[in-house]
């Protein structure tokens, strides 16, 4: 799924995983991709762990 994100979205998710205390706001295209990814819960959880070792909840 990460490879199908719009440009920068994979980096945004990685940043969210690595910065749990930061308040980050995605662009609209990244937000839509991120929420779509979250609908695939098992895959989303695995991708979060691969990117940064933890699950990112909204």
Provide structural commentary.
The protein has one domain (2-52). The protein is globular, with a radius of gyration of 10 Å. The protein has helices spanning 9-18, 28-39, 41-52. The longest helix is centred in the middle third of the chain and has 12 residues, at 28-39. It is mostly helical. The protein has three helices and no strands.
Helix segment tally: 3
Q: Helix fraction?
A: 55-70%
Give the ordered list of helices and strands. Answer: HHH
Structural class: mainly alpha
From the alpha carbons, calculate the radius of gyration and give it in angstroms.
Answer: 10 Å
Uncertain residue ranges: none
Report the strand count.
0
Which properties best describe this structure?
58 residues; mainly alpha; 59% helix; 0% strand; globular
